[in-house]
Amino acid sequence: MANNFTELQKKDLKYIFHPCAQMKDFENNPPLVIKKAEGLYLIDEHGKKYMDCISSWWVNLFGHCNPRINKVITEQINTLEHVIFANFAHEPAIQLCEELEKVLPNGLNKFLFSDNGSSSIEMALKLSFQYHLQTGNPQKTKFISLQNAYHGETIGALGVGDVDIFTETYRPLIKEGRKVKVPYLNENLSPDEFQKYEDECFADLVELIEKNHSEIACMIVEPLVQGAAGMMMYSHNYLKKVRELTKKYNIHLIDDEIAMGFGRTGKMFACEHAGIEPDIMCIAKGLSSGYYPIAMVCITTDIFNAFYADYKEGKSFLHSHTYSGNPLGCRIALEILRIFKEENILELVNKKGAYLKKQAQKIFSNKKYIKEYRHIGLIGALELKDIAPNERVGRQIYEIALKKGVLIRPIGNTIYFMPPYIITEEEIDILLNVCLESIEEFIQIKNIDLDKISENKKRENNDSPF
Ligand SMILES: *Cc1c(COP(=O)(O)O)cnc(C)c1O
To answer: Would you state the pLDDT for residue 338?
Structure first.
């Protein structure tokens, strides 16, 4: 252990097994101990500030220690902190559902509560399976999902996920769903070429579904953007066609808006870009903006009705979590919806997003080391060419940027950012310039000759998020 570690860092390494990390990496670079946070900034033990440009794992929307949210959480904590949610209810939960229904796509009007995204995915899969069981289709037990998908890391969620690094070790434990090709947006293709590619992907799905629909319960998608795959983006037209096809064959469409919901893509929910109405939607992350673990599953009345029967019929949905419907989480989520409405948040996201896109293109469009800049809403991802084979390129650039006071995240050769909506244009400029400097510093340290990088790195679904 290096002797410049603080006492807290030493104790952290003594006790804590951190998520999404190789603990040995911390021998040289221990986790940063954050003392407090304000708005866009995290502040460490030494008082150093970091711009939190990944919204603390995609959750924070309106800045850390937001005064408006702090106020309601304080009031709620002094009124009702928790109550068993079986046979009991409370006003924050009821009001939250009432407000959510107004902003959700049509048809989603019944709500189940959970306390994290993965468990909401488990609930969605169980609901779909049990719906078919109770409506005369017990043979519908299979799940379809997209290649490179991520839906969380519990055993059920891993079955519909397709990021090898998370799944590989646990395969013997997993009920594997079918994975289908995704028409990723690609600027190098002409509109005709892209259409052909999209048609091919869709034709694969059509074939799979036409042959097997009697056994398929649901199809689950991350709408438009696959976050954990490295902010990979696909066409909304494909999603629209998926909706039509699944509807035709009595297959539920589960829309996993855990990452992309609540304005990230410039619409309240990303599925709105495709103008579709899913049967089931999972929401978490932005829902409570990092203040409290809460997740929800939003379903149609049709699905709800399949469980509504005399007790003796045994059609109840048995899935509970101790913290389901916790009042603090509900009150926070309610306030977040109010902030959206009262402060015209979507307009703001689109304005700042357009600025981010314009500036990113200006800075990176002519750089030899960039393979692609992907963008939607207030999310940007820079994928680099294979500038240093066998190196953890993104990870090292992330470390350089962090030293400069900017928190971004790596996935393989991609670095990405999805800042809270309070970020200013000046701060966007700082973010992009730090990315530029960090990449170029890396290139210099490694002595990389940009004229010699030949092939683009082929995308693989085991790109490391470390
Ligand atoms: C984060 C995430 C999940 C899992 O949510 P957790 O709260 O981390 O369990 C599922 N799906 C998507 C798309 C996510 O981004």
So the answer is: 98
